[in-house]
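Practice problem: predict the structure.
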Amino acid sequence: MKAIILGLVQGITEFLPVSSSGHLVVMKTLLGFHSPGITFEVLLHLATMLSVLVYFNRIVIDVLLDLKYLLFIVIGSIPAGIVGVFFGDYIEQMFNGVGWVELFFVLNGVLLMGGWWLASRRSTNRELSYGLAFLIGLAQALAVLPGISRSGMTITAGVLLGLRRGEAFKFSFFLFLPAVFGAGLLKLKDITEFSSNWGEIGGFVVAFFVGIVALSILKNTLSRNKFSIYGAYTAALGMILIVVDKIFGMV
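Answer:
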């Protein structure tokens, strides 16, 4: 049952701009959930990768055959890769409790609400370029912090930089693929023996299907210009956690 719940949380929060890493830290700290094993973490990464590939199945081949677009993805992946290599150990320590997460939840909310307030006053007709890809990659690098949403930062950055919403949505999730693949590879080195049970397989299946649903919900809220509601949610959640932390000392 624990694996199913973690798969459900992963599938929903990986794609909606509310930070999957932040929610998993909160579950671990406040609800007594222990971190999933390395094998299960890799399975969850694989499930979310497959969700993106299936959701975008009609254009995956076109992207793979478009050398220029692949270069956009490579350039956009550089900032997060650098941050992960040089600051990964320090950032990992931020996952040991809700102390940092609650602050970053609030920051995520402020950035999303403020970003979309500004975006509503800008025209969005620019084409993706190498420079824009790198700037969106910088936004993705910020999301290595627990509580900061990767999809939220990259889509918001893309729209603020003048991309059409559909293009920002598309690039965000093709930029997600190498990021999650790299994270999975880093986890693989820690696996000494691969084993899984039916519960973990169930968590994988749940994460996969829920991920596809979450992508549809995200695109719908994006097209309806309701993206900032996710910012309001994470800001409120962060403030509630701060109050709970002060009262009960949950860090």
